Each structure stands twice: as structure tokens, then as C-alpha cells.
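Budget justification aside, the reviewers requested a transparent look at the raw inputs and outputs of the sequence design task funded under Objective 1. We therefore reproduce one unedited record. The lines immediately below are the C-alpha cells for a 166-residue chain.
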């Protein structure tokens, strides 16, 4: 699976958020509440949509379960928070080092991609998971049931100290 290591700048996002877990997944409701407003958000930088997950401090993917609670965002990136949209929330995403992968196929196979990232790539990569936002990015045309769908998967990473791991 292709991956790219990218140093991201801080990002300003406008959107909606909800607490959820995989067991109590309210992603569909979140996006249904957000999508009617997306084109009226001023200062959008591009047409990309952000599906952001914010985990509590100390997130460990090896302990991740279907009951792990996180805050999920449906959002767009903006130049400025001066938008006057009371029904929207603001999120400043931390900048930093990310590994970006491409998930090909329907959302129902997304866990296969995450399994590869966390179980195969990350343990042998020389990087560790950093405590920042995880996110996916895609276009408005993205259809989660499309067999040909493509979305970017961004995982926050940090370079491991080789002395500690030797």
C-alpha cells in the first residue's frame, strides 16, 4: 500500500462534531447534518471534506475496540474562523508529521486499511503514533459504497528514538 510522509501546517476547520464509538456509530447522522451547510461556509480553501477523529489522550491502536469513544468531525478547511455561522463548530488541527495512505474501495473495507497501517506498517516503520487528530480527506463526489472510491487516510506519527528501541 502506498504511503507518503507529510509535514502538515496547522489547519482551521469548520463543521459539526459528535461523540461516538464504532458500536454506537452516528457518522451518517453527522454527515447528514453537515452536508446541507458545506457550500455556505465562507473562506473555504478547497472542495475537500474532512472526516476527523479526535481520541482521548493516550490513544493506543492496539487497545482500540468497537467501544472506544472519540469525537468525530465532518468539516471543511477554511482560511479564517470569521464566518458568522453559529450552527457550525470550529476545530484547529495541530500541525505535524503524518503518514498518508490511500484507501481504495468501499467504506465497508476501511478496517482492512487500518489493520494494515496499525498492525503491519507502523510497527516496522521507525515511526510511532502521535497524539493528534486522525483524519480522512475526500471530495464531494466520494461515495462510501463505491467499489472504486478513493480516500486519503492521515495518521499522526512521530519519529522513534532508535536508542530507546534498540
Amino acid at each position: 500500500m502506498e504511503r507518503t510522509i507529510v509535514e502538515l501546517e496547522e489547519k482551521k476547520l469548520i463543521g459539526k462534531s459528535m461523540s461516538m464509538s464504532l458500536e454506537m456509530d452516528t457518522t451518517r447522522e453527522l454527515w447528514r447534518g453537515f452536508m446541507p451547510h458545506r457550500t455556505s461556509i465562507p473562506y473555504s480553501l478547497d472542495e475537500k471534506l474532512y472526516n476527523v477523529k479526535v481520541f482521548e489522550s493516550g490513544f493506543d491502536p492496539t487497545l482500540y475496540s468497537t467501544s472506544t469513544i472519540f469525537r468525530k468531525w465532518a468539516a471543511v478547511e477554511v482560511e479564517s474562523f470569521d464566518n458568522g455561522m453559529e450552527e457550525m463548530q470550529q476545530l484547529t488541527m495541530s500541525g505535524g508529521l503524518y503518514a498518508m495512505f490511500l484507501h481504495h474501495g468501499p467504506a465497508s473495507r476501511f478496517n482492512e486499511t487500518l489493520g494494515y497501517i496499525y498492525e503491519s506498517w507502523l510497527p516496522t516503520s521507525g515511526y510511532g503514533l502521535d497524539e493528534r487528530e486522525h483524519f480522512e480527506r475526500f471530495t464531494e463526489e466520494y461515495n462510501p459504497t463505491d467499489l472504486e472510491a478513493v480516500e486519503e487516510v492521515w495518521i499522526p506519527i512521530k519519529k522513534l528514538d532508535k536508542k530507546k528501541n534498540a
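The mean pLDDT is 89. The chain has one domain: 3-165. Computational costs for records of this kind are itemized in the attached budget.
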